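Field log, afternoon session.

UNIT: design team B
ACTIVITY: writing a sequence onto a fixed backbone
BACKBONE:
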C-alpha cells in the first residue's frame, strides 16, 4: 500500500513538472527610455495621464525599491540582458571614454539566449545599443530570433529616422533626414513615419504570429527620450506627432511634448493588454514595465516641471536615487495578486535569473542575478536578497554607489569623500551621515574596493575628463 501511494505521488509530481515545462509563461519586458520614478500616476504623478500603466499597477504588483542597471542607457541595458552589474558587465558606459564601445561577444549570455534553451520564440522591438551592424553584438547574434528597431542609441534620438533595422537589414522609411549622421542620428525635415508607432504595431503583429508557443518579447520603447540633435539645431527636443490632450495646456511646448509622449506610450501599452486578452494569452503572460534610468533634463523639458524624479534626489547620469531607482510594474493575472505594493530591493540584473526560474532553467554561475519570482508569486518567505547592489559610472571621472540594507553610499570621484545615507528615513538623500557612522563607512569602503573587476575598456579615471562633442567613436546620449 505504501509503495502504491509513493508511486502515485511520484507520478503526480512528474505530471506537474511536465505541465510546468510544457506551458512556461510568456514574458514581455517593456522598457521606457529616460522615464523617471515619478512620471506615472501610480507613483504619484499628477499632471501626466497614464491610465493603462496605473491599471497595470492596480491589477498586479508595483515595486517601490527597484533599481536600474546604470544611470545611462547602454550599460543599463547590458545589465538587464546579461545579469551582471556594472562592476562586472562588458559595457559600462555609452562610449564616452573616447574609444568605440565594445559590442557583446559571442560567449556572452543574454536573457534571450537563455530562454531559447527552453524553446521560447524571442524578439526585440525598439532600441538595442549593445552592438553595431556586422558585430557580434547585434540582437540576432545574441539570442533574438527577430529584431526591428535601432542599433545605436544616437540613432534612437530621432523619432522620424530615414531607416530602421529589421534583423540585419536596413529598412528605408519615408522620412527625410538631411545631414544624417553616420549612425542615422539627426532630425527629419519630412516627417511621415513615427518610429514609436511602428514599434507598437510591430509588437502587436509579432504577438499574433507567435501566440501558439512560449515567447519572450523585449519591447524597448524610446519614449520619452529627447532628440538631442534636434534640440541643438532647431530647438525641438521632444518629438511627438501631436500634443494630444495637452494641446491646450498653458505649458511650455517641451513639457507638452514630454507628457504627450508618455501618454501615447501608455495608450499603446493598453492596446497590448487588449491584444493579449483577444488572443487568450492574458493569464499566461507575465508583463513587466520599467525604465532604463532616471529622468533627463534634455530637449528643453525641465524635469522639475513634472517632479519626474518624485521624492528622490538626482536625475539621469547621477548615482543618487533619482538617477537609478525606477518604476517596476508586474502583471500576470491569476499568478500575481492584484494591487500589491512590494518593497523588495532588486535591480535590472535580477531579470535574467527571474526569467530562467519561470522557464524552468538554471542560469549560469557567476552572475549578479537573484530571481524575484518568489516575490511576484507571493512567496516572500522564499525570496533571497542581495548582500548589496553596486553601480559604477565612468562619465566625468570614476563614480561609485552601493546599497547594503537600508544604507546607501555614494562616491563622486577617486579620492572624494564617501557620502552615506539612510534610505528608510531619508529616501531623498538629504542628510550625509558618514561622520556619525564610521563603522558603516568602513564596511561600504570595503564593498566598493571588492565589488568590481578591472576592465581594459573602462579604466578608472582619477581626474574628470571633459566631455567632447559627438563623433563616431565618442557618441553622446
Amino acid at each position: 500500500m505504501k509503495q502504491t501511494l509513493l508511486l502515485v505521488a511520484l507520478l503526480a509530481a512528474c505530471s506537474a513538472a511536465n505541465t510546468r515545462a510544457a506551458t512556461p509563461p510568456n514574458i514581455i519586458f517593456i522598457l521606457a527610455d529616460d522615464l523617471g520614478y515619478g512620471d506615472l500616476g501610480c507613483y504619484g504623478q499628477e499632471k501626466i495621464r497614464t491610465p493603462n500603466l496605473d491599471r497595470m499597477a492596480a491589477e498586479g504588483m508595483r515595486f517601490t525599491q527597484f533599481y536600474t542597471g546604470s544611470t545611462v542607457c547602454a550599460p543599463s541595458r547590458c545589465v538587464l540582458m546579461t545579469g551582471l552589474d556594472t562592476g562586472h558587465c562588458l559595457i559600462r558606459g555609452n562610449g564616452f571614454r573616447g574609444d568605440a564601445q565594445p559590442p557583446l561577444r559571442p560567449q556572452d549570455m543574454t536573457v534571450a539566449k537563455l530562454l531559447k534553451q527552453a524553446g521560447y520564440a524571442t524578439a526585440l522591438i525598439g532600441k538595442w545599443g549593445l552592438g553595431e551592424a556586422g558585430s557580434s553584438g547585434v540582437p540576432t547574434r545574441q539570442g533574438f530570433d527577430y529584431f526591428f528597431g535601432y542599433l545605436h542609441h544616437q540613432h534612437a534620438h530621432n523619432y522620424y529616422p530615414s531607416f530602421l533595422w529589421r534583423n540585419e537589414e536596413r529598412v528605408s522609411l519615408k522620412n527625410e533626414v538631411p545631414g544624417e549622421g553616420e549612425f542615422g542620428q539627426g532630425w527629419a525635415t519630412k516627417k511621415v513615419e513615427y518610429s514609436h508607432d511602428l514599434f507598437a504595431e510591430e509588437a502587436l503583429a509579432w504577438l499574433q504570429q507567435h501566440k501558439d508557443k512560449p515567447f519572450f518579447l523585449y519591447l524597448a520603447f524610446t519614449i520619452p527620450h529627447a532628440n538631442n540633435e534636434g534640440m541643438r539645431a532647431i530647438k525641438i527636443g521632444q518629438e511627438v506627432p501631436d500634443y494630444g490632450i495637452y494641446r491646450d495646456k498653458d505649458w511650455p511646448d517641451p513639457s507638452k511634448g514630454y507628457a504627450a509622449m508618455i501618454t501615447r506610450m501608455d495608450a499603446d501599452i493598453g492596446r497590448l493588454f487588449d491584444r493579449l486578452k483577444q488572443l487568450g494569452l492574458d493569464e499566461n503572460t507575465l508583463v513587466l514595465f520599467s525604465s532604463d534610468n532616471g529622468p533627463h533634463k534634455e530637449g528643453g523639458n525641465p524635469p522639475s516641471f513634472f517632479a519626474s524624479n518624485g521624492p528622490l534626489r538626482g536625475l539621469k547620469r547621477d548615482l543618487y536615487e533619482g538617477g537609478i531607482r525606477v518604476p517596476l510594474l508586474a502583471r500576470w493575472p491569476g499568478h500575481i495578486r492584484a494591487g500589491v505594493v512590494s518593497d523588495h530591493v532588486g535591480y535590472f540584473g535580477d531579470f535574467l535569473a527571474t526569467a530562467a526560474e519561470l522557464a524552468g532553467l538554471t542560469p549560469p554561475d557567476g552572475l549578479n542575478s537573484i530571481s524575484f519570482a518568489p516575490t511576484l508569486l507571493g512567496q516572500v518567505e522564499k525570496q533571497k536578497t542581495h548582500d548589496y547592489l553596486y553601480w559604477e559610472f565612468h562619465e566625468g571621472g570614476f563614480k561609485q554607489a552601493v546599497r547594503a540594507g537600508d544604507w546607501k553610499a555614494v562616491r563622486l570621484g577617486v579620492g572624494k569623500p564617501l557620502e552615506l545615507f539612510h534610505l528608510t528615513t531619508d529616501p531623498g538623500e538629504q542628510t550625509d551621515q558618514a561622520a556619525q557612522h564610521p563603522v558603516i563607512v568602513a564596511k561600504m569602503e570595503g564593498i566598493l574596493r571588492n565589488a568590481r573587476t578591472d576592465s581594459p575598456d573602462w579604466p578608472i579615471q582619477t581626474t574628470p575628463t571633459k566631455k567632447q562633442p559627438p563623433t563616431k567613436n565618442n557618441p553622446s546620449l
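LOG NOTE: Residues 253-278 form the longest helix (26 residues).
NEXT ACTIVITY: expression trials, pending approval
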